[in-house]
Amino acid sequence: MTQDELKQAVGQAAVDILLPNLQDKSVIGVGTGSTANCFIDALARHKGFFDGAVASSEATAQRLKAHGIPVYDLNSVDSLDYYVDGADEANRHLELIKGGGAALTREKIVAAVAKTFICIADQSKLVDTLGAFPLPVEVIPMARSHVARQIVKLGGDPVYREGCVTDNGNVILDVHNLLITDPRGLEEQLNAIVGVVCNGLFAARPADILLLGTADGVQTLKAPA
Ligand SMILES: O=C[C@H](O)[C@H](O)[C@H](O)COP(=O)(O)O
């Protein structure tokens, strides 16, 4: 199977989990990226069975609307049962690196609200130790150099993502050469740097379910109790 087919398979598998649980009033949290797009396209085939969605990026909002799915402001929604999104890396604790598409902050907000976070990914995203994928950090533009210096003190090599402005008007530093043995600790350390808006480690709020697309079918991984 191609990588695109694996992404379509996990997008459909997420819809299959949601469908029996959807009600007329259900609002679904929707992530960003090529895998999340496969989920959106599969979900759109059932748009009569739920109310609408909350989007984690402008790009996702546009894709949902193009399918005729109503998009709600998160502030107008009382609760979200499900958030479905891709990842750049995942470990077996379902801790993630996200933000390759610069949507990490809104993704982390929607994930924080959702009762169940279903991560969808092809098998190439599963790793033993997070950090081969450069860790995205969203930064207030005027703090870029300060934050970069603090990240160097933590042992990382920050690289400014040229030309990238997030949906929140900020910039991204991609941190290379981190061997992330304590994802939760590093997530906290990065958040404590003044000028950091958010970082792409999802460890304090990992996924609840990881649907992994493999050549043998979709595997379901759950976080160890
Ligand atoms: O900012 C982007 C997101 O975190 C994406 O969910 C992540 O980069 C995975 O994207 P894709 O499914 O395209 O590999």
Specify the number of helices.
6
Count of individual domains: 2
Distance separating the two termini: 32 Å
The largest sheet, given as strand count, sense and whether it forms a barrel, is:
6 strands, mixed
Helix and strand run: HEHEHEEEHEEHEEHEEEE
The ligands bound in this entry are:
ribose-5-phosphate
CATH architecture of the largest domain: 3-Layer(aba) Sandwich
Radius of gyration: 17 Å
Structural class determined from secondary elements: alpha/beta
- Which residues sit in consecutive blocks of at least 5 with pLDDT less than 50? none
Helical coverage, percent range? 25-40%
What is the residue-mean pLDDT, rounded to a whole number?
97
Strand portion, in percent?
A: 25-35%
Number of strands: 13
What characteristic shape results from the CA principal axes? globular
GO molecular function, one term: ribose-5-phosphate isomerase activity
Protein name: Ribose-5-phosphate isomerase A
InterPro entries: NagB/RpiA_transferase-like, Ribose5P_isomerase_typA_subgr, Ribose5P_isomerase_type_A
Subunit structure: Homodimer.
Account of the protein in words:
- There is one protein chain.
- The chain has 225 residues and is of the alpha/beta class.
- The protein has 2 domains: 144 residues, Rossmann fold (3-Layer(aba) Sandwich); 66 residues, ACT domain (Alpha-Beta Plaits, 2-Layer Sandwich), CATH 3.30.70.
- It is 28% helix and 27% strand.
- It has a 6-stranded mixed β-sheet with strand order 2-1-3-6-12-13, sandwiched between helices.
- Strand 4 and strand 5 form a beta hairpin.
- Helix 1 packs across helix 2.
- It is globular and about 50 Å long.
- The site of ribose-5-phosphate (R5P) has 18 residues, from helix 2 and helix 4.
